[in-house]
Amino acid sequence: MTRRVVVAMLVPVPWSPPGVDPRAWRAALAEDVADLLARLAQAEAAIAATPADRSLAEEIAWPGMRIYEVPGMSVLPVLGAAAADGFEQAAVIAADAPDVPGMILGKLLRPLESRAVAVAPGGPGGGLLGVATGLPAPDWLADHDLDTASAQRLRRTAPAPGDVTSTPPWRRLRGPADLATLDVALEGWDNTRALLGG
Predict the structure, then answer these.
(1) Residue 116: is its pLDDT beyond 60?
(2) Which of 7, 82, 83, 165 gives 20 to 30 Å between its CA and that of 65?
């Protein structure tokens, strides 16, 4: 069986709803993502954090969950750490999408049987929700962060455009307008829901 890991990257969260402490907001978003990853059946879970965010990673990690300390919020160092841990496939996702369904993550990993890289767009706010690849990552894969990357940017360095495939998008909570898109009928995102008043 292929060894897979899905890594929640503690991306910057530059806003919070009115009256909500910014650190508590960021922690709630990330903890909801970590909780989802911990329950995935077909992949192990990990968290990627800069040294400044190590304490947050330890606060939200489940027992035994790997924490990859990386110098910045770009993807290649995380993929390198996962490869060094012996994983054969890895996905890196932004930890500001607390209600992302597990099936979205499954669809991000599925194309790796035939494609080198798969990306999930981050919705109307741009950027990527996540990127997945076989390990070690292809030499041509340029380093990037999830806030500014796109499938088009990744295809520029690929040997062929088809080496990078897009999977269904899921929006991240990157600003006040995104709050209205939260679906209260979706299970999960308990910590975010609690901060928003239930």
Answers:
(1) yes
(2) 165
